[in-house]
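So, can you check?
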Amino acid sequence: MKKLSPFYFIGLATLNLVMDSINGHFSFFDIIFVILAILPLLINKKWIYQVFGGSISLICLYILLAVFLSQARQYQQGHPDPLWTYGMGYVLSLITLFFGLLMTGIIKINQKKLVV
């Protein structure tokens, strides 16, 4: 299951690259994101997985906090946006946080082998 996380991050980085290319905001950093996402698969070391997963997890926690504070500010100003506006931020951050923690080894999923 540890190998599943890099493919999720490669998919996110590739989606970012494609969307920026379509919208005309392509930059060199998009290619760097794809290279960084491929890095754990290229260098198959435990510490690479832990560093990459740990940094992604910290970034996701920051994004969750920012989305929560932004939503709280909107409610204080009296014009709350629908949950859908912030729902994608919560869902995407929680999924990414899960894969980041899976990559570090904090969350472990055991697969039982089926014996026939």
In short: The first helix runs from residue 4 to 23. The CA atoms of residues 63 and 69 lie 10 Å apart.
